[in-house]
């Protein structure tokens, strides 16, 4: 039978130890503190009548893995569920509760009434919920609505760098095929090189180089303007 030592009695260590024990392994869980739970804990300060909650502040019914962990530990019945939460922001209170609407719309009225949010915040929340709603329908829409918008800035940066690099690439077409066959692999900067340093038409080559800089500047400016508009 396998003998395993798990170091750290937080959620991760506890879950690992429990899963291993369920497979029949002999598990030793080592925790440096006097209590288990790690950051997901509450504690009783000296002279204080109530336990202070450190975490887990938010446990929702969609936290299925955590709920399953509590169930397997035999403590699921100790979770106290609330059907409404009172929130205070900007000296205003609001009651956060689910409405009898299909998810994720069930939280929309509560989010709309949240104090401390600007009109822009509410619009972004509405957009996020609409995307969640769409993403729930089809698998490919998860990619279109969530994954792609998240990686789009990184993709844009890479595409921009590659595009600028394509304009100035010279060494590979020069060394591989000399720009040929014919002029099929002749890039812009290779053409500038041929015009300036082979034909010695310096004025024309300088103009071409300036046009290249201007094209690169226009593309970069449009890209950074779009990125800035997206994050402001
Ligand atoms: C204030 C606060 C509020 C939070 N609110 C929420 C929330 O509402 N909802 C939510 O989902 N998450 C929340 N979190 C996050 C959540 O609590 C943590 O992500 C989770 O508890 C981390 O678990 P863990 O096992 O990875 O790490 P930890 O909980 O940090 O556990 C690591 C354990 O390893 C022990 N350890 C470290 N080194 C050693 C060693 N050398 N030998 C022995 N033991 C060692 C530590 O003492 C600790 O007990 C909150 C966190 C904090 C701090």
Quick take:
By secondary structure, the protein is mainly alpha-helical.
Question: What would you note in describing this structure?
Answer:
This protein has helices at 11-22, 64-73, 108-112, 119-137, 139-168, 171-177, 188-198, 202-231, and strands at residues 3-7, 26-30, 42-43, 52-53, 84-89, 92-97. By secondary structure, the protein is mainly alpha-helical. The chain has a domain at 151-231. The chain has a two-stranded parallel ribbon. A two-stranded antiparallel sheet has the order 3-4. It is elongated. Flavin-adenine dinucleotide binds at residues 7-13, 30-33, 38-40, 54-58.
Which spans of ≥5 residues are poorly predicted at pLDDT below 50? none
Number of helices: 8
Average residue-wise pLDDT: 85
Strand order in the sheet with the most strands: 1-2
Shape: elongated
Helix content: 40-55%
Name the beta content range. 5-15%
Per DSSP E runs of 2 or more residues, the count of β-strands stands at 6
Head-to-tail CA distance between termini: 58 Å
SSE run: EHEEEHEEHHHHHH
CA radius of gyration = 30 Å
Bound molecules: flavin-adenine dinucleotide
Structural class: mainly alpha
Strand count, sense and barrel status of the largest sheet are: 2 strands, parallel
Keywords:
single chain; 232 residues; mainly alpha; two-stranded parallel ribbon; 11% strand; elongated; binds flavin-adenine dinucleotide
Fold topology:
Layout: E1 3-7, H1 11-22, E2 26-30, E3 42-43, E4 52-53, H2 64-73, E5 84-89, E6 92-97, H3 108-112, H4 119-137, H5 139-168, H6 171-177, H7 188-198, H8 202-231
Helix pairs in contact: 4-5, 5-8, 7-8
The structure holds flavin-adenine dinucleotide (FAD).
């Amino acid at each position: 039978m396998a003998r395993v030592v798990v170091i750290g009695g937080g959620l991760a260590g506890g879950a690992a130890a429990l899963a291993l024990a369920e497979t029949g392994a002999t598990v030793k869980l080592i925790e440096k503190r006097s209590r288990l739970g790690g950051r997901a804990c509450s504690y009783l300060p000296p002279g204080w009548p109530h336990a202070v909650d450190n975490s887990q502040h938010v446990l929702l019914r969609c936290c299925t893995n955590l709920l399953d962990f509590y169930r397997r530990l035999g403590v699921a019945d100790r979770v106290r569920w609330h059907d409404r939460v009172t929130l205070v922001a900007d000296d205003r209170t609001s009651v956060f509760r689910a409405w009898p609407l299909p998810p994720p719309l069930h939280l929309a009225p509560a989010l709309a009434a949240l104090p401390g949010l600007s009109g822009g915040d509410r619009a972004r929340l509405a957009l996020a919920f609409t995307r969640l709603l769409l993403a729930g329908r089809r698998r490919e829409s998860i990619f279109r609505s969530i994954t792609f918008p998240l990686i789009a800035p990184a993709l844009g940066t890479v595409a921009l760098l590659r595009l600028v690099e394509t304009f100035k690439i010279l060494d590979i077409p020069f060394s591989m095929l000399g720009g040929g066959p014919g002029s099929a692999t002749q890039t812009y900067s290779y053409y500038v090189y041929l015009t300036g340093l082979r034909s010695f038409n310096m004025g024309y080559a300088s103009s071409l180089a300036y046009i290249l800089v201007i094209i690169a500047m226009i593309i970069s400016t449009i890209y950074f303007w779009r990125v800035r508009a997206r994050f402001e």
